[in-house]
Amino acid sequence: MEKGNSTHPVGAEAFNKDKKRVAWHDKALWFVREKRDKAAHQIPEWEQLRELAAQIKAHTLSQLDLYLEQFEKNALKNGIHIHWAKDAEEHNTIIADILENHQAKKVVKSKSMLTEECGLNPFLEQRNIEVIDTDLGERIVQLADEKPSHIVLPAIHKKKEEVGALFHQHLHTQKGASDPAYLTQEARKHLRTKFLNADAAITGVNFAVANTGGFVVCTNEGNVDMGANLAKVHIACMGIEKLVPSQEHLGVFLRLLARSATGQPITTYSSHFHRPKKGREIHIILVDNGRTNQLAKPDFKSSLNCIRCGACMNTCPVYRRSGGHSYNYSIPGPIGAILSPGKDLKKYSSLPFASTLCGSCTDVCPVKIDIHTQLYKWRQIIGKEGHLPKGKKTVMQLTGKVMGQSKTFSMMSAIGKKILGGPKVLAYNALNPWTEDRDLPSPNFTFKDWYKKNKNNE
Amino acid sequence: MSSKSSIIDAIRNIEKEEVHLPRIPYFEGLSYDSTAFFLDMLQRLGVEVIQGNSIEDIPYYLQEREFDSKKIFTQFSELPYRKTLKHGQLESIQLSILNGKVAVAENGAIWVTDERLSNRALTVIGEHLLIAISKRNLVWNMHEAYANISIHEHGYGMFISGPSKTADIEQSLVKGAHGSKSLIVFIYE
Amino acid sequence: MKIGLFIPCYINQLYPQVGISTFQLLQQYGEVEYPISQTCCGQPMANSGCENDSIGAIKVFKKAFEKYDIVIGPSASCVLHLREHGVNIFPSAKEVIDKTYDLTEFLFDIIKIKHINATFPHKVALHKSCHGLRGMRLESCSERVKRAPDKQKKLLKLVDKIKLVSPSRADECCGFGGTFSVTEKDVSVQMGNDRLADYIHNGAEYITSGDMSCLMHLEGLIKRQKLNIKVIHMAEILASNKVMVPEEKEILETSNIH
């Protein structure tokens, strides 16, 4: 495991220094989770839709090569430019080249977790290109020089007073003003000038349709439509897993996505792009960046079903009490904890352990990714590859030996009781953090003792 | 080897079991009255509803409101408003009147396309938005909606289900993030 | 029916009374035996990423229990672990694992009990342990549109004079999570305290559950903070009228085995 503040427990400990903020963060996300529950319960066929969505994704992934080729063929016919990127660097370079060809210096960008994953913003900024994140939450974290802490609610960790101070500093709003309506209106004005003067727009892709060669982007703010429709060039970045076979499948996903994400019946705007307007250009970048590796792992390939709704974050009791930044990965929460080890097992080795395996993530997931099972499976791989903290590994080996032999177990129980003043064979020295906040009972007999003495009386 | 071939080859080399593409069954509506459900949904989405007889009635309903008719854009040739706009004029638009093709009762979304849309940004850039939809074009859910449209017929099309909104500041809902600050749905026969 | 009593390691050592109650409950339905060679289901190692270190424990489990008609343990979590992962870890244990059930499953699905001679005149909140809730679907969970049979709630409702109270968050995890409680101590403690505040706020005198591990974590916090709420395993409530004979009680109080 890495040193420094990169592991989840370290980030979580820092987040938990401010108990009031933890409670506030937990409550804000629980509110979204409850809205999601209500929205899901309105649809009697909800569980059936989840199953359908999972099957459609599984099918598409099982023939992804064919669907990608079909998609490319149809998109080209539609007059869309198609690019393929093996990794983050190629993705970023392709975008820089497109921008250079158009002498584009001012770029507006709507939410795209893929561009976060690829580190696009710093890459372009180094090349003197202005990249403005236009989703309000993303603009807030951009101004604060932070990363999004949630994939749907990027600034969920920020209080309105902090946003007010940030806007006062950068957008010259009234000092001390923190009314969300006022701040949003000021951001609207500020970003309108950016939209109207942008040379190019970069967006993500929620779904791409193989047999029509077009794609769908969903927002509530309308920033995709402002950006992509005003600028001369629209660059849409998508992971290769975003495909669905045909338009009828969109019906399933659009019923699930917003209900899972925010509890809305659908996002305000679900925009379908198939051809550029005359004199304009649309580019799509199809990005692998580790996805084919994940697809090759039978235990983990269904993580590619993810439609980035964020429901697993909202429901995760650990995420709600540790904050998105504690994961130190572009996609935090349970889904991030099963995607990240595929990218860098050692670096992200603490993330699959940032869970009680309560399974709530699996039950809210609209595409039925068995997230908690995958967390368990990543743990085994991390154990086998030797990325467990040393102390933990030793304790587990020792415990395994004790539990593997009835006699040793009995003996250790007895010794444990004598030395430690209680039967603490379970945890040994790893027990210290337990006892900082919690007591353990110390009965003066075990069940086994009782049974031996009493079985004949029964 | 090009990146395309290396990605496609990588996928092809993975041993994958065949997974059947499921058939999407017919899903019934959530109540017996789709119109009532739709109207209720629009109200919950913060949408104003005007019920009229035909498209031609729209100016009548708008005359009481403080719109400058030169600053109204419409997709309808029969309406006496602007049909084309230059880039520089877009921002001054007070109201965009769009032609709704299919409305979805379950979620209040209405399908609009780029047909007679001089600039695609007119779906969002106007201060306010009006979408006219015929009662006859109301369907129950997204499955029915997609069965009634062809998304590739239009270079650009979208489902709109309310005014632009955000809740990015402390989860408090604010209308008019980037797009229209209000939505009027004009329902005609 | 020859019943093998599976008492999870931490219950054996820290909560012997839960084992006693389970034993007493099961005695009504068959010949109950506790094979003393048993140790542990192996979950602590496996959940820590060390499945291989848990093979020995499952081998011991298999050997200890293969001779019984059925194996019952008062822990959804341990039983679920064996079911979901045990077979994969040590395949030849499949036959034993297939006949291993959690106490709730046994009483509700196999015995199908309709009456129980138990009295518990207290306000009780059911803490739905995640493994029982989502792993075994013993109870309905708020995420899902499908309802489950609410087995634990129905069993508790058979108890005389019990008053069940509902927390505001019906089924949030307590934060135990095995070694999670130690490696992610801050979040674990916060989760536990949040659960406790919810149960206390809603007037519960007792928190009960089919899993003692959740309750061990919660009790640890209760005792340290001297909170006015208690924990009790479901088996103890269901066996509340099994009055112990005086000799046993004496043994309990005076036993000093080592």
TrEMBL record, chain A:
<dbReference type="GO" id="GO:0046872">
    <property type="term" value="F:metal ion binding"/>
</dbReference>
<dbReference type="Pfam" id="PF02589">
    <property type="entry name" value="LUD_dom"/>
</dbReference>
<dbReference type="GO" id="GO:0051539">
    <property type="term" value="F:4 iron, 4 sulfur cluster binding"/>
</dbReference>
<keyword id="KW-0677">Repeat</keyword>
<keyword id="KW-0479">Metal-binding</keyword>
<dbReference type="InterPro" id="IPR004452">
    <property type="entry name" value="LutB/LldF"/>
</dbReference>
<dbReference type="GO" id="GO:0006089">
    <property type="term" value="P:lactate metabolic process"/>
</dbReference>
<dbReference type="Pfam" id="PF13183">
    <property type="entry name" value="Fer4_8"/>
</dbReference>
<dbReference type="InterPro" id="IPR024185">
    <property type="entry name" value="FTHF_cligase-like_sf"/>
</dbReference>
<keyword id="KW-0249">Electron transport</keyword>
<keyword id="KW-0004">4Fe-4S</keyword>
<dbReference type="InterPro" id="IPR009051">
    <property type="entry name" value="Helical_ferredxn"/>
</dbReference>
<dbReference type="InterPro" id="IPR017900">
    <property type="entry name" value="4Fe4S_Fe_S_CS"/>
</dbReference>
<keyword id="KW-0813">Transport</keyword>
<protein>
    <submittedName>
        <fullName>Iron-sulfur cluster-binding protein</fullName>
    </submittedName>
</protein>
From TrEMBL, chain B:
<feature type="domain" description="LUD">
    <location>
        <begin position="89"/>
        <end position="187"/>
    </location>
</feature>
<dbReference type="InterPro" id="IPR003741">
    <property type="entry name" value="LUD_dom"/>
</dbReference>
<dbReference type="InterPro" id="IPR037171">
    <property type="entry name" value="NagB/RpiA_transferase-like"/>
</dbReference>
<dbReference type="InterPro" id="IPR024185">
    <property type="entry name" value="FTHF_cligase-like_sf"/>
</dbReference>
<dbReference type="Pfam" id="PF02589">
    <property type="entry name" value="LUD_dom"/>
</dbReference>
<protein>
    <recommendedName>
        <fullName>LUD domain-containing protein</fullName>
    </recommendedName>
</protein>
TrEMBL record, chain C:
<dbReference type="Pfam" id="PF02754">
    <property type="entry name" value="CCG"/>
</dbReference>
<feature type="domain" description="Cysteine-rich">
    <location>
        <begin position="4"/>
        <end position="83"/>
    </location>
</feature>
<dbReference type="InterPro" id="IPR004017">
    <property type="entry name" value="Cys_rich_dom"/>
</dbReference>
<dbReference type="GO" id="GO:0005829">
    <property type="term" value="C:cytosol"/>
</dbReference>
<protein>
    <submittedName>
        <fullName>Fe-S oxidoreductase</fullName>
    </submittedName>
</protein>
<dbReference type="GO" id="GO:0016491">
    <property type="term" value="F:oxidoreductase activity"/>
</dbReference>
<feature type="domain" description="Cysteine-rich">
    <location>
        <begin position="124"/>
        <end position="218"/>
    </location>
</feature>
